[in-house]
Amino acid sequence: MAQKEKPVAWVVGGPKGLGVMVAKGLAEDGYRIVINYRQSRSAAQKLKTEIEKNGGEAIILQGDISNKEDIRRMVGKVREDLGRIDALVCTAGPFIFKKTPVIDFTDEHWRDMIDGNLSGVFYLVREVIPMMRRQGGGRIITFGYPEADKVFGWTGYGPYAAAKTGLAVLTQTLAREEAAHQITVNMILPGDIRDPYKEAPICEARGKEDQRTPVGRPGTGEDVARVVRFLVHPDSDFITGAMIPVTGGFINT
């Protein structure tokens, strides 16, 4: 396969968390990987080195996806260096683990939740979709949480839930609008996947017990990456607007 023909996958938020195994898996499938980071340059460089050690290709970019100017700059750099974006996988998204009533959120925390989980994806797709249209198609994958496709209140996590349920609607809207351009848009709903398993292969979770998850073992980054790899496959072009749980049966209570 000629260099210019190799597809490009941008794993947004790839240096840490669930994006790590996604980036490694897509690199194994022949994608050139784009990894952006806001502050974690050492983590991004480590992931790049690991991908290259296994025969893959990767570039790293500094930028904040909640910042419109950063996104324009990064997209321009990818266009200049790699010429295309075939898959946009939006794994990034801030989350505050401490339960907090809505009225106790500061303006800054509200903006972090909304911009990092919803507005940033809008800024990204606004820049990337025109490229995908010119290429003749592409894949966009967003990330939610269990049952984000249903409108339920989530006590203690209101701003995050508002952003992700909004993202679910945005995902399905884009799926309808871009279908004619051969661009599929789907959302993965990861379960309660925690460190150290976010960046781990499935084999490391085998035999481990997790009482929160009905299947009995912890979820891993590879569980999520397997679904991403399926959705970006050329023959997955009939799947769009889907909300796919990768939860081991876990639901928010």
Automatic annotation (TrEMBL):
Keywords attached to this entry: Oxidoreductase
Pfam families the UniProt entry points to: adh_short_C2 (PF13561)
Alphabetical list of InterPro entries matching this protein: NAD(P)-bd_dom_sf, SDR_fam
GO molecular function, one term: oxidoreductase activity
Oxidoreductase is among the record's keywords: yes
Listed SUPFAM superfamilies: NAD(P)-binding Rossmann-fold domains
PANTHER family linked: OXIDOREDUCTASE, SHORT-CHAIN DEHYDROGENASE/REDUCTASE FAMILY (AFU_ORTHOLOGUE AFUA_5G02870), SHORT-CHAIN DEHYDROGENASE_REDUCTASE FAMILY PROTEIN
Family to which this protein belongs: Belongs to the short-chain dehydrogenases/reductases (SDR) family.
Designated name of the protein: SDR family oxidoreductase
